[in-house]
Specification:
This protein is α/β, with parallel strands linked by helices. It has nine helices and nine strands. It is 45% helix and 18% strand. α3 links the parallel β2 and β3 (85-90).
Length: 262
């Protein structure tokens, strides 16, 4: 898919040559923003990434996933505004995990990351993700529960999140404190490998990838982040319904891992 404003014929021959050279320039870091009905949040998210990664060779991929609002229109406008922003759109809903895997496969960077469009996680921590990957980590996840992190959210959701992470550690043998923060980085080759191994296409994908990465001996790290529940935004997660579903998925993954050991 063409990058934003490359079709501006007013640039003339020299402009087209410059565009061709930019297209061949190596990209170090690809940041994916999953977007399902994110017309109101998308522009602020892209602008934040561009501000934080100024000076870093990067691209932004908007992984649009079956939106029913104006997300595709907003994304198209952002592609025209920023030359390193790309839109990867799906008319049908793929699910969060599958949409992310599709974007990782299309990424040009050797290092990839994703962050939620709601900016619940402070975008400046992208630089910490990048540093950890540069220093040898295979997978890095933002954590709301390690030393130095800040997490501001309602009491009920905080309790359910802590309980969920405890069960993942107890039942799946994970050594991490936070599995569901929508802020993670990977070596691209590792991300593609994990996508081939993970079976979930939606919210459990994050947890599944982190557990599988640890079981395969990959270097998985956590970095503290500042995370604040967005004000005035309805969560896409159903606290009790999704909690029951996640518990079932934990046990199914536990069974799969046990069969592999047998």
């Amino acid at each position: 898919m063409p990058l934003g404003n490359h079709a501006d014929l007013g640039w003339g021959v020299f402009g087209l040559v410059a565009v061709a050279l930019m297209a061949r320039r190596p990209i170090e870091f690809s940041v994916v923003i999953p977007a399902h009905n994110e017309e109101g949040a998308l522009e602020g998210a892209v602008a934040a990434v561009e501000r934080v990664l100024r000076g870093v060779s990067h691209e932004v991929i908007i992984a649009e996933d079956g939106s029913r609002d104006r997300t595709v229109e907003v994304a198209g406008r952002l592609c025209r505004k920023f030359r390193n922003v790309r839109l990867l759109s799906s008319p049908a809903r793929l699910g969060r995990g599958k949409a992310l895997c599709r974007a990782f496969a299309a990424a040009r960077g050797k290092l990839v990351a994703y962050m939620d469009a709601d900016l619940a996680t402070e975008p400046a921590r992208l630089l910490d993700l990048l540093d950890s990957l540069r220093n040898g980590a295979d997978v890095v996840t933002g954590s709301r529960y390690v030393k130095g992190a800040i997490c501001e959210r309602g009491v009920l959701r905080h309790f359910l999140s802590k309980a969920y992470n405890f069960l993942v550690r107890a039942l799946l043998g994970s050594g991490l404190c936070d599995h569901q923060c929508g802020f993670k980085g990977f070596r691209r080759a590792v991300a593609i490998r994990l996508c081939a191994l993970a079976e979930d296409n939606h919210w459990f994908w994050d947890t599944e990838c982190l557990v599988i990465a640890q079981k395969n001996g990959l270097a998985v790290g956590e970095i503290p982040v500042e995370w604040r529940e967005p004000e005035g935004r309805k969560s896409k997660v159903n606290a009790f319904g999704d909690a029951r579903d996640m518990l079932g998925r934990i046990f199914r993954l536990r069974g799969r891992l046990a069969k592999r050991r047998a």
